[in-house]
Amino acid sequence: MMENYPPPLAVSRWFNTSAPLTLEVLKGRVVVLHAFQMLCPGCVSHGTPQAERLHRMFDAKDVAVIGLHTVFEHHAAMTPVALEAFIHEYRLTFPIGVDEAGADGPIPVTMARYGMRGTPTTIVIDRAGRLRKHQFGQVDDLSLGVAIGALLAEAPPDMAAESAAARCDETGCTVPN
Could you tell me which residues come within 8 angstroms of residue 44 by beta carbon, excluding any fewer than 6 positions away? Predict the structure, then answer.
C-alpha cells in the first residue's frame, strides 16, 4: 500500500464546480481521481460511468469524485468546448478539471506528475491526503467500492490523534493505554 503524498493537480479549467478544487481543500475526504479522455473507449464505456455512480452513491462530505480530462493524443479534437458538450451529453455531474497542457510535448502536467501510463487511470487518496491506489485501466466496481469503504472505515486524521491523547472529564484525566 502506498503511503506517499501526491503532487498537486494542474488544472486549466473546471466544470461542474463553482470554485477550483485542490487536494488540500479536499483533505478529510477520500478522493477518487478519474483520469480520462472523451475519445477513450474504456473511459466512455466503463471509467466515466463508474465515476458518476460513485459520485451519486457516496456523500460528498465523505468521498470526493473528481474527473481529470487528461489529453495526451488527438489534442485538436478534445478541446474544452468539445468536453463541455461531452459532459452535457453524458450527464456527468461530478467536478471535472482539464489537465494543464504540457510545455514539452503531448503529455499534460498532472499526468506526468503522477506517472500515469494512459487512460483510464484511477487514483484514490485517503482522508489524510496520502496516495493509496494508482491503477491504470478499468477497475472493477466491487474492488473499488471495497477500497473506498476500507478508507472510510479508517479513523479520520484528527480522530486518530485524539484517540492517542489523554481522556479528560470533570473527574480528571486518564492516560491512554
Answer: 38, 90
Helices (H), 21-66: 23-26, 41-42, 48-57
The CA radius of gyration of the chain, in Å to the nearest whole number, is: 18
Tens digits of residue pLDDT in 117-132: 999 999 999 999 999 9
Inter-axis angle of helices 141-153 and 48-57, nearest 10: 40
Strands across the sheet containing 30-36: 11-15, 96-99, 63-69, 30-36, 121-125, 131-136
Q: Render pLDDT for 136-158 as a digit per residue (tens, 0 to 9).
A: 999 999 999 999 999 999 987 76
Peptide bond between residue 120 and the one before it cis (omega within 30 degrees of 0): yes
Characterize the bridge pairing of strands 167-169 and 131-136: unpaired
Q: Which phi and psi angles does 131 have, rounded to 5°?
A: -75, 120
pTM beyond 0.90: the answer is no
